[in-house]
Amino acid sequence: MSYLRLRAYIALKLTLHRLGQAATTWPQPHDWLLAAGLTLALGVVTIPLGLHSHFLAPVVADVGWAEGLRLAARALVMPALLEEGFWRVLLLPHPTELISDRKRWRLGLPVLGLFVVIHPLNAMTLYPIAFTTFTNPVFLLAAALLGLICTIVYWKSGSLWIVTAMHWLVVTVWLLFLGGYQALRL
Fewer Cβ close by (within 10 Å): the C or N end of the chain? Predict the structure, then answer.
């Protein structure tokens, strides 16, 4: 087997291992408590800051129930499931991978930085209407903090489902109740 084939085989095997482990690991009650506490802490930090800076606005999105449910369902798939599947599950070591915490963070912090940076890059290329929102410092701070707490919970739980739920909840609340729908002009 050539060197490149061997590397591709190892990468595929690692990818399948991470996806399989994360998809089949069910969060324990203590994982949910950690997730709830960190998500609440995220809200305690970002909501007052967002309201003070006028990035967030306490306004219910001007959508009916059916459209609100469709919006929440879309947010569950993208960004929650797809982003968490990529940024946490595929790029970060699963708890079953025996590496030191120091190495885990040496891998995790650059991934967190890329997670934040991809939002403005996305707005510059694929979603220009979101440029003002995705380059706002409060949005970028909230994205960084969300990425950080999802990383911590993923490493503690090993579950894709809990970080997907966290990401979905934060995005859905922002879209439907804190001005995100209006900011993105959905």
Answer: N
